[in-house]
Here is the input.
Amino acid sequence: MTGLRSEQRLRCSAEEREGCAVIRPEGVLGHSTYGVLRDFMLKCAVEQPRALVVDLSAVKIATNSVLNVFTTVWLRISDWPALPVLVATGSAYADLFRRAPVRRHVGVFGEVGEALANVDRPQPRRRAHRTLPHDLASPRAARRFVARTCAEWELPDRLTQDAVHVASELVQNTVEHTGSEARLRLELRRGRLTVAVGDDDPAPAVLVDPASDACNAGRGVHIVVQLAKTWGCVVDAAGGRKTVWAVLGSR
Here is the structure.
């Protein structure tokens, strides 16, 4: 019983270093605490640092299978915000990670300083953001903001139109289904445009394929699913907020 109680204890903290989020879990990483580290890493990723660097110097790994947490996070953020994940194993877990399949997706280094030194130079990206009030006029303001930003970035008309539609619908959903302001962000990288809207309601957004329920699915759901190459929702239950994002590209 003592072992079970100790495994349930895992605390995570983060600090910014060289533009990266350095995450430090303390305690036991086991099956019962797997989700604690996963959710904390996803929460940090939403802030779009250069990379996630996990410092394992203060953690005890209870079983090898929990190393999948790093692959899981990498898969969840590979489309957006598309960050590298690096692990600083220290001497205690160097051999374990050297043999682990997780190395295919995650950079493995001995110390945090070494990991930071090996973060790839960030791909050129452009960002813009605007906070919109909980107001019926906000979807229209979102459309204007996105259209103006896309024009400044000299994006193709089709991509601009898609971004305007998606941003409008995501902001509309925030206005209709929450009491929160809408935090609209645009990011352009490698020819792909990400539209993300954050709000202060932790209830996850569920976007369904319009073909699955054409009668009941909302118009906004149809538009996002049809126009986006991929989409997702990152929930920060502890912070009481979420971010819904959609990645757009040439069609």
Remarks:
- The chain has two domains: 2-117, 125-248.
- Helices lie at 2-7, 34-46, 68-77, 94-99, 112-117, 138-152, 157-177, 219-227.
